[in-house]
């Protein structure tokens, strides 16, 4: 009983029979006709070739392939880390985002005028890219979390060196910890005469942030969002953490993403910024989000450049929505307009 036919296994793995049979032959399996019975050992071996984690059930033979199995991601391309900036009121989040955005324009492609689309990408001289969510603050973070949209890879915690750790600093730490998102500390306003970064560090450590200087793994960078000091180091810290965590995503599958923001624009109708998480979003694709759907008419990046394709980690403004979707809505690609219209 612990056996499965070639065609049934192909069905479970979701591959067509012809390439499947070729695969079996390449694995040294002699008989590959559709009704040939494979024993559980063979079937497991084959399933693993397709990145699946088979569970062999002794009664029902092999029919249980858990969907949410941990996958070996190392075969997929790297994607940009997605970063949210958080911190107490007036500690300099907006100023920091503006400064980072300017470096993105300066490094810039053609055009050079940034569009506010709720997220933007910074290309570093090293060819690496960081995507920043431009809708910082606890409300946006919580809204997305509540909808199960785990968009952020990294939280940059801004703490003003002249003001120190404040209630919303602690709130941000809690949010990040609850979501299991690593923190990089940016001690801001170090240009100020009353800046006291030592005090900030001590205070953070008392609140459970394990800084590198005491053998922890939280990086801490001193910056001035106003003068631009330390911004390169902050970007480096983000890249270091991204390399450590090895963020990757499939590019050749149907697009998945999340709505960052949406609005109605004159002459364009309903527009929404989509952050692509997996797969590649293409012009002409049909996507759904919440109760709304969209045939992607026009896509543009944060510099207003129109795009035909958006790989993982890319924020794009998408025109063509029936209604404006909500921030935090999950975006999925539909295979057929008929299905969506039904
Ligand atoms: P909210 O959005 O209200 O929470 O504030 P925020 O965190 O976005 O702070 P914002 O960027 O608006 O900065 C608050 C004030 O601090 C502004 O007057 C900034 O010019 C000033 N500021 C921000 N960064 C620096 C810095 O590095 N040095 C100095 N001296 N001032 C700064
Ligand atoms: Mg602000």
From TrEMBL:
Task: Answer whether the UniProt record assigns the keyword Glycoprotein to this protein.
Answer: no
Keywords, ordered alphabetically: GTP-binding, Initiation factor, Nucleotide-binding, Protein biosynthesis
A Gene Ontology molecular-function term? translation initiation factor activity
| Occurrences of domain Tr-type G (ranges) | 78-247
The record's GO CC annotations read: cytoplasm
Q: Does the keyword Protein biosynthesis apply?
A: yes
**What is this protein's function?**
One of the essential components for the initiation of protein synthesis. Protects formylmethionyl-tRNA from spontaneous hydrolysis and promotes its binding to the 30S ribosomal subunits. Also involved in the hydrolysis of GTP during the formation of the 70S ribosomal complex.
Q: What family is this protein classified in?
A: Belongs to the TRAFAC class translation factor GTPase superfamily. Classic translation factor GTPase family. IF-2 subfamily.
Name it.
Initiation factor 2
Q: Which organism is it from?
A: Gigaspora margarita
The shown residues of the full protein are 98 to 439 of 439
């Amino acid at each position: 009983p612990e056996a499965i036919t070639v065609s049934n296994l192909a069905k479970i793995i979701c591959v067509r029979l012809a390439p499947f049979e070729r695969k079996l032959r390449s694995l040294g399996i002699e008989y590959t006709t559709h009704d040939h019975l494979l024993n559980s050992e063979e079937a497991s071996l084959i399933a693993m070739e397709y990145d699946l984690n088979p569970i062999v059930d002794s009664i029902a033979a092999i029919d249980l392939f858990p969907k949410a199995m941990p996958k070996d991601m190392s075969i997929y391309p790297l994607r940009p880390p997605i970063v949210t900036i958080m911190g107490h009121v007036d500690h300099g989040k907006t100023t920091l985002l503006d400064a980072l955005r300017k470096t993105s324009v300066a490094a810039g492609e053609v055009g050079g005028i940034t569009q506010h689309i709720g997220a933007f990408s910074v290309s570093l001289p090293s060819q690496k890219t960081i995507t920043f969510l431009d809708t910082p603050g606890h409300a946006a973070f919580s809204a997305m979390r509540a909808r199960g949209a785990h968009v952020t890879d990294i939280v940059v915690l801004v703490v003003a060196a002249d003001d120190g750790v404040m209630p919303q600093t602690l709130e941000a730490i809690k949010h990040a910890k609850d979501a299991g998102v690593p923190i990089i500390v940016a001690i801001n306003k170090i240009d100020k005469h009353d800046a006291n970064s030592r005090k900030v560090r001590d205070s953070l450590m008392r609140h459970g942030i394990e800084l590198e200087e005491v053998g922890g793994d939280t990086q801490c960078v001193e910056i001035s969002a106003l003068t631009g000091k330390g911004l390169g180091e902050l970007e480096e810290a983000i890249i270091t953490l991204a390399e450590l965590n090895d963020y990757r995503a499939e590019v050749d599958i149907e697009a998945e993403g999340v709505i960052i923001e949406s609005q109605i624009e004159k002459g364009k109708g309903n527009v929404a910024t989509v952050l692509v998480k997996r797969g590649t979003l293409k012009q002409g694709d049909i996507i759904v989000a919440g109760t709304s759907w969209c045939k992607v008419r026009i896509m543009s990046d944060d510099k207003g450049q129109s795009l035909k394709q958006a790989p993982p980690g890319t924020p794009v403004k998408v025109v063509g929505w029936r209604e404006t979707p909500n921030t935090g809505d999950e975006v999925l690609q539909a295979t057929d307009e008929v299905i969506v219209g039904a």
